[in-house]
Amino acid sequence: MISAQGIHKRFGSTEVLRGVSLHIDKGDVVAVIGPSGSGKSTFLRCLNRLETIDRGRIDIEGETLVDTDAGGVCRYAADADARRICRKMGMVFQQFNLFPHFTVLQNIIEAPVTVKGLTREAAIPPAEELLRKVGLLHKRDAYPSHLSGGQKQRVAIARALAMEPDIMLFDEPTSALDPELTGEVLRTIRQLAEEHMTMIVVTHEMAFARDVSTRVIFMDGGEIVEERPAAEMFASPAHPRTRAFLNHLA
Amino acid sequence: MDYFTAILGPLLNGTAVTLQVFLITLALAVPLGLGLALVRVSRFRTASGIVSGYIWLMRGTPLMLQMLFIYFALPFVPVIGVRLPDFPAAIAAFTLNYAAYFAEIFRAGIQSVGRGQHEAAQVLGLSYGQTMRRIVLPQMVKRILPPMSNETITLVKDTSLIYVLAMNDLLRAARGIVQRDFTTMPFVVAAAFYLFMTLVLTWGFMRLEKKYAVYDD
Fold first, then answer.
1. What is the rounded distance in angstroms from the CA atom of residue B193 to the CA atom of residue B16?
2. Which of B32, B109, B116, B197 stands 20 to 30 A from A195 (CA)?
3. Which residues form the ABC transporter domain (chain A) (predicted)?
């Protein structure tokens, strides 16, 4: 479903990604863990073109988003194509990034109406269904500033789902939340996993990574150090750097 | 009281001229300023640079000079030379000048909308144009209300500069009566008129701010 090969990315003189390759199949729930600055968020952001890569190749559902020719020149698909390809992926941010001038319902129907061309009338019932699913239908007319962090993040998840993505990308979805609010967001993500949504979750929640994901990827220093089924990764990490990281957390 | 009624006519005529210049300038300079701001923040470097230069020119020279230039000197400029009557010349100068100031206010508002908003719009599939129209500009409006209130109030009073083209705005009408009748009463009345106009503006902007207060950033 997603194939990333040899992704390189630098910010100025800092090499943030040094040849990251990853293959995601339908129904995979992949947790990406690792210390701060390991490049995990950057890698996620490269997949949907929030960051442009310097070298490598990314295919989404058989379509090439970006490729690098023999001369080392990186070429992206034309803007309209790239946007269409990236629309197959929904994304949830650490800082929610809800649209503050829209109500909860408007946040959710904005893209279906503006991008897909649905009428408001057609967009509202599925949006309400999504709100019911994340348990926030009673907040449909509230503005984001009147919601708690956990509620904001659940609205953000509903907003991403409204575009009916095949893949969901989560960039540290609970890192900006108070500890007592992370549970409600994780429950929502867990529910998606049970519905076999394909997901990549960059997270610091190790218990969540262990319980929900089918595979865990440990990144450090801009590389994938280790990639294994969740249970194995936590029971017997093979690489010393993974062991050090997991021990440090425990 | 009779004297007051007698001078009211010319002063009201002057007010009409002042309001015309004010309203037409506002109606033209706001869209022009928005266009300039959008070019200024766009990724087209050359166009953005030209707009920067334009803003420098318009903010860097007196409005009165610009008005005199358009009225007296523009007819003799090759190619673009055109002779404008006094009212259009004044409107042209005010519009070109105020659009530059508005453009900078709009730019500040546009750039104050965080990167996260652009990213959220992008991952939902919105194009750059859709992101501007649906996400950034609506949020900009709330943020620029206080500086726009400032700038429009300044515009009301700046309209008095059109006296240099011998147009009878409120202030020039008042001054005419003062010089004729040797009384400062018309100045007091003119001041009251200006204060009333700014009061209406202040009130209007307060209403707008209240309307936008339904959400917080």
1. 11
2. B116
3. 2-246
Best mutation target, B112, B123, B145, to test chain A (most A CBs within 10 A): B123
CB of A119 closer than 8 Å to CB of A129: no
Q: CA geometry: angle at B51 spanning B46 and B55, to 5°?
A: 150
3-state secondary structure of B181: helix
Predicted confidence (pLDDT) per residue in B6-54, tens digit: 888 899 999 999 999 999 999 999 999 999 999 999 999 999 999 999 9
In a domain, A16, yes or no: no
A126 within 8 A of A135, measured Cβ to Cβ: no
Q: Which residues pair with A22 in a beta bridge?
A: A4
Interface touch A83/B214, C-beta < 8 Å: no
The answer to whether the beta carbons of residues A74 and A10 sit under 8 Å apart is no
**CATH assignment at residue A208:** 3.40.50.300
Q: How many domains does chain A have?
A: 1
Say if the Cβ atoms of A101 and B124 lie within 8 Å. Answer: no
Ordered by where they begin, the domains of chain B are: 2-212 (1.10.3720.10)
> What is the domain extent for residue A233?
24-51+88-249
Each residue of B140-151: b (16+ CB within 10 Å) or e? Answer: bebbbbebbbeb
| Domain annotation covers residue A72 | no
pLDDT of residue B81: 82
Cβ contact B125–A115 (<8 Å): yes
Grouping H, G, I as helix, E, B as strand and the rest as coil, residue A66 is: strand
Centre a 10 Å sphere on the Cβ of residue B170 and count the other Cβ atoms it contains.
28
Closest CA to B157 of B48, B21, B7, B4: B21
Which tokens belong to B26?
């506002």
Interface residue A52 vs chain B (CB under 8 A):
no
Model-level ipTM above the cut of 0.95: no
A151 within domain boundaries:
yes
The pLDDT tens digits of the residues spanning A32-65 come to 999 998 999 999 999 999 999 999 999 999 999 9
Residue A44 with chain B: CB contacts under 8 Å:
none
pLDDT digits (tens, 9 = 90+) for B59-86: 999 999 999 999 999 888 888 888 889 9
- In this prediction, residues B145-154 reach a mean pLDDT of 96
